[in-house]
Amino acid sequence: MKTQRPPSGGPFKRVVVISLIAFAVAVGLGLGMLVGSAKPSVAGASLDPGQIAAGGSPSLVPPSSGGPGEAPSPTPSGSPPPPTPTPSPTPVPTPKLVPAPLTGVLVTPAAAARHPIAVMIDDLSPARPQSGFSSASVVWQAPAEGGIPRYMMVFQENIPTNVGPVRSSRYYYIAWAAEVRAVYAHAGGSPQALQTLRNKGNGQLVYNADEFRWGKSFWRVKTRFAPHNLYTDGKRLRGIAKSVGAKDAQIDSPWKFAPDLARSLRPRGGKIDFGYSANHIHYDYDWKTNTYLRAVTGEKRQKDAVTGTQVAPKNVVIMLMKFGPLNDGSKKHRLEAQVVGHGVAWVATNGSTTKGTWKKASLTAPTQFFDSKGKQIVLTVGQTFINVLQTGSPVTLKPGKAAPADPPRGAQLPI
Question: Rounded to an integer, what is the distance from CA 124 to the centroid of its chain?
């Protein structure tokens, strides 16, 4: 008896096919429900399904902002958003610098154009230490009555803080201030000086800044006794300059300037000594800073009361000039000087001293300095002290030693 096989595609195969069809239908129904429950979105805002069913135009519904009582929408996972680029800082242009006319120091054009201000300064011992030396571009010193000298500080590129003690005017100081048509600050003066300021103190020679008129710009300190206690400052002096019409503008430099001599070429040491009746002056040349350290009678190191630093100009000028009694009827033994003309001068700069001549062609012309061959002497960039002495006054100059020709083996040559 033969055994018959069930035909191909029998009941077992039909069961498998039916099961697969049922599974596919179930999966399809599940996906349809999932799609039907989702809201389509446009650019992150969901579409209102009611409007879509009604056939209207879809309106954007903003996503939940997580307001009060509402849970904020979760942040979708994935790559973090790109960082916000930091804007590049606007480059700051390097300011253009120009030489200041009285020092040659590189400063801004605005500083180089500031109107010069000259201030008469006391030099009697109760007035020391004085204030303002460190900020001055040029300092003049000359004898006054009784053998007591006075200073005139000239401020140009720098605006000083306290300046003083302020003292009275003399005619020959006006002549030096007139070289730059300075605002000329003082407290009274000799009859000759006051008459000159009344006639030509509105910019013809200088701009008169008498304390008797501009009293609010001056004050007296209680730590010193009069008349050695009158002070002012740069802010108030600049205010006077504006009031009298002394406008800022470029001025011609009266001198020529050059940079410091290289340290390796500077001489070592060197001294200068001279004096007035009531004040002996001494300078020590310091080759490291290329300055002349100043000392006066009673002070081994003359200091600026504002900064506490030693007075140390880059250039020292000594001028010999004729002084004589001023017969103004006051019986105060005031002096007059032959400021226009020429005479003997020494100019110390970069550690070396040159003997030559000073020349001033007119009341408003600059005082300039020439060597024995008639060539204008070049000053070092920085502050200049001009010491004016009576003709015949002794001056002692001690030169320093020449710079070492060759540095020690293995030593680094200073720049």
Answer: 31
